[in-house]
Design goal:
3-stranded antiparallel sheet, alpha+beta, 3-stranded mixed sheet, 8 helices, globular
Length: about 140
């Protein structure tokens, strides 16, 4: 399973454990291997797991598609506003997002949620995505 598939496959786990992840900077600052971006403007800043969780929680109208699925990949044209975003279904599989929203609106809310994660604390060594998943799925694991 590649890193993007691993991320998608565990979105439900991340949401279930959101409070725990957000309370631990090593998990919250975990880099997410998704290259979000917009045509003509290029890549959005690298995403962190905490930013995704805050986006899904605080901007549900912009971070979920018309079927209520979490958007995990942001792509589209800022000129036309057309979205080519991808969501994740309950089985953890990537699916095309169906949303009437402009990709500009989606990307702006995502950027705002990620903003505080752009500068990593100097005393924090973030976990990898594999390590976060291992911690969350191993019962009794103490960090």
């Amino acid at each position: 399973m590649n890193a993007k598939e691993l991320f998608c496959h565990h979105v439900s786990l991340f949401m279930l454990c959101a409070d725990r992840i957000l309370s631990d900077p090593r998990m919250a600052y975990c880099p997410v291997p998704v290259n979000n971006g917009l045509a003509y403007l290029g890549a959005l800043p690298p995403a962190k797991l905490g930013g995704y969780l805050e986006w899904w929680r605080e901007y549900p109208e912009k971070s979920h598609d018309d079927n209520g699925l979490q958007i995990w990949f942001i792509c589209g044209s800022p000129l036309s506003g057309i979205s080519r975003c991808m969501s994740v279904n309950p089985e953890g599989e990537p699916v095309k997002s169906h949303t009437g929203l402009s990709v500009n609106s989606i990307a702006k809310s995502f950027y705002i949620s990620q903003e505080k994660y752009h500068v990593q604390p100097t005393d924090c060594e973030p976990y990898t995505l594999d390590r976060v998943i291992e911690i969350l799925t191993t019962s009794g694991q103490q960090e």
